[in-house]
Amino acid sequence: MRTLSGLLIAIILNPLFSYGEGKYEKAMKNALEGLNQAATIEDFRQVANQFDRIGDNEKDKWLPKYHAAYAKVMMASMEEDLQKKDPFLDAAQLNLDAIEKMEHDESERLALEGFLIMIRMSVSLDRGMELGMDCGMILNQAYTLNNQNPRAVLMLAQFKFGSAQYMGQDTSESCAMFDEALELFEQTDNKESEPFLPVWGKNLAQIFKQQCQN
């Protein structure tokens, strides 16, 4: 009885010890379900807010901040008013800056940061000239860190594809990289991985592959 009473007291006095991890997992699963179903800017806004709240409570975990950043990048990519893109991207960059100070998957962070910069570049041609070199360096670094990361391959391929189109050059190298990215997505689809890791990008790779075929 004493042991049972002591256990009950410990649970009452320290509920986070008993339930904290479960609450985090439940919150992340709920937010990721919303992220997977998001189809509008408002959907992504709600999901970004969810992940930000989780990140505020779980300051030592990088994934809530990562997914919040991704949701904000998606908001910017869907926003038709060019003047409204930057606030979304600025907020996403704050998330990525916070992640940089934590233990995290650097290839994933850099791939998403490259995606962010490409959306920022789309606002004007002047930005393409200003940010293009930095974007290429970041995405090459993401690829060098882990060339088996499908998002690193995809984002570098997208950057190379856009650059080749702009310069009127051959896109065969980048198109081959889209095929490589899709193969990596297929491999990760069939492999168990740590919960809550990034999985986005496969649909985008398929869209670019279709463009290459056309």
Describe the structure in your own words:
The N and C termini lie far apart (74 Å). Helix 4 (63-78) runs parallel beside helix 6. The chain has 214 residues and is an all-alpha fold. Mean pLDDT is 90; it is low at 1-20. The relative contact order is 0.08. The protein contains ten helices and no strands. Helices cover 79% and strands 0% of the residues. It has helices at residues 2-13, 15-37, 41-57, 63-78, 85-100, 106-121, 125-145, 150-167, 172-189, 202-213.
- Determine the number of helices (DSSP H or I, runs of at least 4 residues): 10
**Termini distance?**
74 Å
How is the biggest beta sheet arranged? none
Rg: 20 Å
Short recap of the structure:
With 214 residues, this protein is mainly α.
Note the main attributes of this structure.
10 helices, 214 residues, mainly alpha, disordered N terminus
Chain-wise SSE layout:
Blueprint: H1 2-13, H2 15-37, H3 41-57, H4 63-78, H5 85-100, H6 106-121, H7 125-145, H8 150-167, H9 172-189, H10 202-213
